[in-house]
Amino acid sequence: MALEPGTDLAEQVRLLRRAHETFTEAGTVQRPVRPVVADSWRRSARAGVGPDGTADVELSDGDLGAYRAEHPLARVMPLFRELMGTFASDGEHLLAVCDEHGRLLWVEGHARTRQQAEWMNFVPGARWAENAVGTNAPGTAVAVDRPVQVFAAEHFIRRVQPWTCAAAPVHDPRTGRVLGAVDITGGDGLAHPHSLGFVQAVARAAESQLALLLPHHRATDTPELSALGRDEALVVAGGRRVRLSRRHSEILVLLSRHPEGLTGDELSCALYEDESVTPVTLRAELARLRRVLGPELLASRPYRLTVPVESDVAVVERRLESGAVAAAAAGYAGPVLPASQAPAVARLRRRVADGLRTALIAGRDPDLLADWAHAPWGEDDVEVWRALAAVRPTATVLARLAALESELAAPTATWLQRPRS
Fold first, then answer.
1. Pfam families attached here (predicted)?
2. Which entry of 186, 308, 344, 363 is 20 to 30 Å from 381 by CA?
């Protein structure tokens, strides 16, 4: 929550503005800034967001309409309108829905409030990702995957500070992936705790409806493995959704790519940098994984999966191989098991990321390049920013590129031109 009950709003705004000025001038965070906001300010600054910036409109007219029509959250827009539309109109607020990249898809509500919001480009098609416009409820909710309330001068960009907003992420009920966020934006009255609980409840209702609208899979269907952008992979099999430990995630990712199986020695070399790890350690991990998945899915001698497993990694690779770059980018939710240090996983992570970014640079599609550049794994990727600047030379893009090239040219620079993966 942004405010404790009984807080003096005017005094809180004054203190937050002073803290914001201190941070933008000296880089230090003072009270009463909440930890969630302080962390967001730091991420915003690292992404090169300036306090006097504004959002870029990246989709408009037909492009926006086509993108919205295909987005999964289009299925629950009638629900959002039913639950939040009257509240937004009567309270002079805005109902907003963004995608997983922080791009606003719908902004509806009170007519005069919509007009006022246009001044800061809080409009459909504008990118409100945290790493594009700094701390804001929809962008930060997507970034941290949790409900967020942002009050007044907690916003990173000054022109947004007259506003207050609350947002909650909406997940795919089958895979757990963030599809976007639902947001309520308006005046200081939204700093009330009820607004945060309200958007949380709406997000949960949307996920429940999506569970009914998405096609059901029979227990005999191919198991699905989600490992992109996750430190802990998710398996959907036999009607169950199972979140794996990090080590089990690595094992299943590797076995899914080797249907012929791997010997104990092969799997050990793929998993462990330390050659002193004993075979007993690996066998114990596999025994635990078998108990998690069930004995019918994991066999031994060699270690292998008894049925094909469809992974999101393989889907992206197939789309790239067929030349469907936009579809590959849409399916790329982040690096393969980002925190994994297993040698074979690290090689796979680099190969998938490099293949996709190379295709994006060659394709020169501004929207796809912007999606990559504004994602956490692409925010320091100078090659992609250069490609984006060539096809979309907005002030924000050029400023970010200049900052990256300045860091790169500095004698003590340790920045890499490759994306973090």
1. GAF
2. 344
Q: How many helices (H) and strands (E) does the chain have?
A: 17, 11
Rg (CA), the chain: 23
Strand partners, 96: 107, 183
Let me know if domain 9-213 sits in CATH 3.30.450.40. Answer: yes
Q: Which residue has the tokens 């998993």?
A: 271
Predicted confidence (pLDDT) at residue 383 exceeds the cutoff of 70: yes
CA 250-256-259 angle, to 5 degrees, is: 135
DSSP string, 385-405: HHHHHHH---HHHHHHHHHHH
Largest CA distance in the chain: 69
DSSP 75: G
Q: How far is CA 317 from the centre of its chain?
A: 20
Residue 261's φ and ψ, nearest 5 degrees, are 100, 165
Is-cis flag, bond preceding 78, omega within 30? no
Per residue in 9-40, pLDDT (tens digit) is: 788 888 999 999 999 888 888 878 888 999 99
The DSSP string of 143-158 is HHTS-EEEEGGGSSSG
> How would you classify residue 328: left for phi > 0, otherwise alpha for psi between -120 and 50, otherwise beta?
alpha
d(CA 295, CA 255): 15
Beta bridge partners of 299: 304
Token pair of 382 as six digits? 């100078």
Q: How far is CA 65 from CA 5, 29, 109, 138, 248, in A?
A: 41, 41, 19, 20, 41
Cβ distance 121 to 57 under 8 Å?
A: yes
Cross-strand partners of 103: 127
Q: From the centroid of its chain, how far is CA 142?
A: 5
Contact in structure between 16 and 33 (CB atoms under 8 Å): yes
| 127 within 8 A of 101, measured Cβ to Cβ | yes
CATH classification number, 224-311, choose in 1.25.40.10, 1.10.10.10, 3.40.50.2000, 1.10.260.40: 1.10.10.10
Q: Are 313 and 348 in contact (CB under 8 A)?
A: yes
Q: Which two tokens stand for residue 135?
A: 């701390």
Element (H, E) at 194: helix 193-213
* Total residues found in the chain within this entry: 421
Q: Are 351 and 336 in contact (CB under 8 A)?
A: no
Give the global pTM. 0.62
